[in-house]
């Protein structure tokens, strides 16, 4: 049985085995995801303690669960880029000289649709960006749809419609932090990639790629400090990424569609969770064009990623 309950601040979608909590006024973030596995309840999302915690600490806590749009990760030189032979400067949050994580990560979304059936429940949340940042004067409509499915599965779909009169540059991503009941150093990771994006000392791509195959097979995260971007294998023959708690025999699988070409991994200093970020582009795509989407006027596209928590054997 699936149910949806909501008030002005929190939306809860629940089944017999899973429960997700969404904060529409806080960038439509997925703040909790509780699953029943091996007879125990577990929250696998490292979110915020409250709405006040989000409002005060979103940036300082690493943009947990934030929607990344219209660009992902970093743009250097305080957000400068050239598009159509014109220079723009974008961004509302800068760190060490780079603009971070887009414009809508803390904007209020509205519930546009909801539905429950015997097999699923879904809620759609939308936001209209009207071009309020002079550095990105390109209006677009974005809708984030959360599906709660059977077998501890969450599907996240994103619809984007260009409301500008000409083609616009855009990228999309999500910045969730996952916890499987153990510190990061006790977890393992496997990924469908053997290629990593080369960064400079500002964590900006140089334009080069290099071989990196250590996560092709299950690899311990003990002692690894990650803030790296990987190019995913296409087509995928299974999940793009699996995070595994081998002791408790729990795995999280991440399966994006073909539009999410990149996966960013980040281990925060507290090492209680790991960010696994599905991205349509590499960082600084407005300048380096690595995965940049050029969306024609009045056109739209849809992106989907599926997450599942399963027993690991």
How is the secondary structure organized here?
Layout: E1 3-6, E2 11-14, E3 18-23, E4 29-37, E5 40-43, H1 51-57, E6 66-68, E7 74-75, H2 76-79, E8 80-83, E9 86-89, E10 94-95, E11 98-100, E12 110-116, E13 121-129, E14 140-149, E15 153-162, E16 168-170, E17 173-175, E18 177-178, E19 188-191, E20 195-199, E21 205-211, E22 219-220, E23 227-231, E24 241-245, E25 250-256, E26 262-266, E27 274-279, H3 285-288, E28 293-295, E29 300-311
Antiparallel strand pairs: 1-2, 2-3, 3-4, 4-5, 6-17, 7-11, 8-9, 10-11, 12-13, 13-14, 14-15, 15-29, 16-28, 18-27, 19-22, 19-24, 20-21, 20-23, 23-26, 24-25, 25-29, 26-27
Characterize the biggest β-sheet. Answer: 9 strands, antiparallel
Q: If you average the pLDDT, what whole number results?
A: 97
Helix percent reads under 10%
Number of strands: 29
How would you write the strand order of the largest sheet?
12-13-14-15-29-25-24-19-22
Structural class: mainly beta
Strand content: over 45%
Oligomer: single chain
Low-confidence stretches: none
- Characterize the overall form: globular
Distance between the termini: 28 Å
Give the number of helices.
3
Using only C-alpha atoms, the radius of gyration works out to 19 Å
């Amino acid at each position: 049985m699936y149910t949806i309950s909501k008030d002005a601040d929190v939306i809860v979608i629940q089944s017999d085995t899973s429960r997700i909590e969404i904060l529409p006024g806080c960038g439509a973030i997925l703040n909790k995801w509780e699953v029943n596995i091996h007879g125990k309840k577990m929250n696998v999302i490292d979110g915020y303690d409250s709405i006040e915690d989000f409002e005060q600490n979103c940036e300082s806590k690493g943009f947990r669960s934030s929607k990344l749009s219209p660009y992902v990760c970093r743009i250097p030189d305080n957000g400068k880029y050239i598009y159509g032979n014109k220079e723009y400067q974008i961004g509302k949050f800068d760190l060490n000289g780079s603009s971070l994580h887009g414009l809508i990560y803390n904007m209020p979304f509205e519930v546009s649709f909801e539905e429950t059936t015997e097999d699923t429940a879904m809620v759609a949340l939308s936001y209209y960006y009207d071009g309020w940042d002079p550095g990105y004067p390109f209006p677009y409509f974005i809708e984030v749809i959360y599906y709660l499915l059977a077998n501890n599965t969450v599907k996240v779909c994103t619809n984007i419609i260009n409301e500008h009169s000409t083609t616009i540059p855009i990228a999309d991503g999500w910045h969730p932090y996952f916890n499987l009941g153990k510190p990061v150093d006790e977890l393992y990771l496997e990924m469908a990639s053997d290629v990593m994006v080369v960064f400079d000392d500002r964590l900006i791509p140089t334009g080069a790629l290099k071989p990196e195959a250590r996560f092709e097979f299950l690899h311990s995260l003990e002692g690894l400090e990650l803030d790296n971007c990987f190019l995913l294998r296409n087509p995928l023959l299974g999940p793009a990424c699996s995070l595994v708690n081998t002791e408790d025999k729990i795995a999280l699988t991440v399966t994006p569609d073909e539009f999410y070409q990149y996966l960013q991994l980040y281990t925060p200093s507290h090492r209680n969770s790991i960010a696994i970020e599905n991205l349509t582009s590499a960082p600084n795509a407005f300048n380096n064009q690595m995965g940049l989407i050029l969306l024609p006027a009045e056109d739209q596209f849809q992106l989907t990623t599926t997450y599942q928590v399963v027993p690991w054997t």
